[in-house]
Specification:
Layout lengths: L1 H23 L30 E7 L4 E6 L5 H13 L5 E7 L3 E8 L30 E4 L13 E4 L4 H4 L5 E7 L1 H9 L20 E6 L1
Length: 220
């Protein structure tokens, strides 16, 4: 009798061990830890191939401040070529940052220190989506883009703006982004935070108090 009971206990233990083993490795399961991880979804903002041929530039101000830029000819070739031509001709020397919309953009390249318009007759084709030209550079913080007359797609000439805060919704597809700040966003922020003139010249708005005059724009 004892022998029968012992055999029954042994049989029960064997069944229990078998069921436990099966629960730990169900039929059809694989050990996922031995499989390579799934490939990551490509980043839609990855434009490294379009920025590989970046051209370096420097905006120097008369007060000693410096803003360093990368320009992307593979994204906006006509816009970059126009900016380089203006820089090399000395056009930007003596122009100012004449507009600073807090938390949005700072804008320059069109007025001198006496708030007189300094313009050229040549314009550049607007390299952005609503003008039928692809431009993959988003208007995120630090991006430099060309200002234009809102109603005229190909009206950009000399004035540029630098984005203070990400603003893809209102700027992407509407303006020709062509580079970004690599050093000197503290300078951009200082200009952005500057108090505004209470008696701005006629036709001008958001004019920063104090003169932020460009000494030179150098292509490196």
């Amino acid at each position: 009798m004892k022998r029968i009971i012992i055999d029954m206990i042994i049989s029960a233990l064997a069944i229990l061990l078998f069921l436990t083993a099966c629960a730990g490795n169900k039929s059809g399961d694989t050990d996922e830890s031995t499989e390579p991880p799934a490939s990551a979804t490509p980043n839609e903002d990855d434009i490294s191939e379009l920025t590989a041929n970046a051209i370096n530039a420097e905006i120097a101000f008369t007060n000693g401040d410096i803003i360093d830029l990368e320009l992307y000819p593979d994204i906006s070739p006509k816009t970059v070529a126009n900016f380089i031509d203006l820089a090399n001709s000395g056009f930007y020397e003596g122009t100012i940052i004449h507009r600073a919309v807090n938390g949005f953009v700072i804008q320059g390249g069109g007025y001198d220190a006496e708030y007189k318009l300094k313009s050229v007759s040549e314009t550049v084709v607007g390299e952005f989506a609503v003008n039928g030209i692809e431009n993959d550079l988003h208007h995120d913080r630090g991006v430099i883009s060309m200002a234009r007359i809102p109603s005229e797609a190909d009206s950009a000439s000399t004035q540029f703006f630098i984005v203070v805060s990400d603003n893809r919704e209102s700027l992407d597809g509407q303006y020709a982004a062509f580079g970004r700040v690599t050093r000197g966003m503290d300078v951009v922020d200082k200009i952005d935070r500057a108090a505004k003139l209470m008696d701005a010249p006629a036709g001008m708005q958001d004019v920063p108090m104090g003169i932020f005059e460009i000494q030179s724009v150098t292509i490196k």
